[in-house]
C-alpha cells in the first residue's frame, strides 16, 4: 500500500434542488479525495442568479456578495490547511476525515504508535518497581519494530488504531521473525 499522491479538490456549488423559503439556494462544499466525496453545508445561501458556477463564487459588488466570497476563501484555506497538516504528519487522508476535522467533531483518529508510546512511558516510570527492566525493553523494541514496519509497509509515520486488522498483525509477525533472523546472522 504505497502512499500515492492524493488527488484532492475543494468545490463550492449550489444545491438548486433544495431552495430555502426565501427562494435562495444553499451553498455547499464538496471535498473530493481520490474519487471519494464528502459534502458539507456551509450555512450560507444565495440567489441562484447571483452565483458564478465556473468561478464558484458570488457575482456582484454588494457587500453581501463580497462577504460570501470572503467566507468561501476562508473555508477553502482552512480545508487546504487541514489537508496539508495530515499530509505532513503522515496521517491517513480521506474526504470524511477532513470534513470531521473541519467540523471539529473529532480530532484525528487515535494512532497506534502514539498509544504505544504512552503505554511504554508509563511502564518505564514503573520499571524496577512493578515491571522488570527486560519487560520494558521488550515493549520498547516492539515499538521500534512497529515504527519500522509501518514506515516500510505503508510509507506512513503512524496508522490509526482502527485500521489494525488480521492482515496487519500477520504481516507484522512475519516482519518481526525476519528481523530476529537478520539480527542472529549479524551476531
Automatic annotation (TrEMBL):
One of its GO terms (molecular function) is DNA binding. Pfam families: Arm-DNA-bind_5 (PF17293), Phage_int_SAM_5 (PF13102). Transmembrane segments: none annotated. The keyword DNA-binding applies. It comes from the Bacteria. Signal peptide: none annotated. Residues 112-180 form the Phage integrase SAM-like domain. Residues 12-99 form the Arm DNA-binding domain. This is Uncharacterized protein. It comes from Phocaeicola coprophilus DSM 18228 = JCM 13818. The lineage of its organism: Bacteria, Pseudomonadati, Bacteroidota, Bacteroidia, Bacteroidales.
